[in-house]
Amino acid sequence: ELKVEQNPLFLSMQEGKNYTIYCNYSTTSDRLYWYRQDPGKSLESLFVLLSNGAVKQEGRLMASLDTKARLSTLHITAAVHDLSATYFCAVDGYGQNFVFGPGTRLSVLP
Amino acid sequence: SAVISQKPSRDICQRGTSLTIQCQVDSQVTMMFWYRQQPGQSLTLIATANQGSEATYESGFVIDKFPISRPNLTFSTLTVSNMSPEDSSIYLCSVRTSGSFEQFFGPGTRLTVL
Question: Tens of pLDDT along A92-106?
Answer without folding.
Answer: 866 667 899 999 999
